[in-house]
Amino acid sequence: MAMTRVAVLGAKGRMGSESVRAINAAEGLEVVAEIDLGDSLEQITAAGAEVALDFTQPHVALDNVTWCIEHGVDVVVGTSGFDDERIAAVRSALGDDPSTGVLVVPNFSIGAILMMRFAATAAPFFESVEVIEMHHPDKVDAPSGTAVRTAELIAEARRAAGSADLPDATTTDPDGARGAKVEGIPVHSVRARGFVASQQVLLGGVGEEFTIRHDSHDRTSFMPGVVAAVRGVGSRPGVTVGLDDILGL
Questions:
Q1: What EC number(s) is this enzyme filed under (predicted)?
Q2: Given 59, 71, 135, 214, which residue is catalytic?
């Protein structure tokens, strides 16, 4: 069986180091370059990597992706905070007839992906919907990429269904207690020791509440999604956001 050669960027970080182990344990994949702060990206091509997996920081991830595009290396972006502006820059770098694939994944957990899908399905049936995400206090961005993507999917589903605006009589909120608004959906971020990655979607209608919750207790929960992304990115030129298509959703 032919081996797909993978470079991991941010290889010494929490997700990067776990991914190195998972990729090397997966059939048909091998890590040929482990790149971290201060290392040259030239190691990617020198090692003959076909796919780069980026778990760095938002302020450097775009430069890494652009470099990979210029050198014909497919990229899976797992860096949280890779927002719409950065995605637009990647589309521009790829051009009108892309030969390289860039897969941007807000969350690699299969459970979290299903949570987002279920939330989008349920959202038009309820008058109210809010998102609460809970992560460890070492996380540098808020709200999480998963929460942003969840809110975007909810808003898209509600627009398609012709749903009314969310009811909210708040007129005074000087400290932002009502959270951030992502496409009109309130998103609240908790940063507390003990959490890895958790999210709740709270939906409410007259006389009832419906809660969808997902918890990741260990980073190993993300690894099946990481392996699927690395295997699938090469067959999808251009930009793809999320693992839904790769998972057959």
A1: 1.17.1.8
A2: 135
Are 50 and 96 in the same domain?
yes
Residues 86 and 136 in one domain: no
What are the structure tokens assigned to 120, written together? 């989008």
User: Does the residue 235 lie in any domain?
Assistant: yes
User: Is 181 a residue of the active site?
Assistant: no
Instruction: Determine whether 188 is an active site residue.
Output: no
* Interval 182-206: pLDDT, tens: 999 999 999 999 998 999 999 999 9
User: What residues have CB less than 8 Å from 190, skipping those under 6 apart?
Assistant: 132, 133, 134, 135
Q: Which candidate, 5, 66, 10, places its Cα nearest to that of 38?
A: 10
> pTM for the complete prediction?
0.81
Q: Is pLDDT of 81 > 80?
A: no
Q: Which residues are annotated as a binding site for NAD(+)?
A: 10-15, 34, 78-80, 105-108
Q: Are residues 135 and 40 in the same domain?
A: no
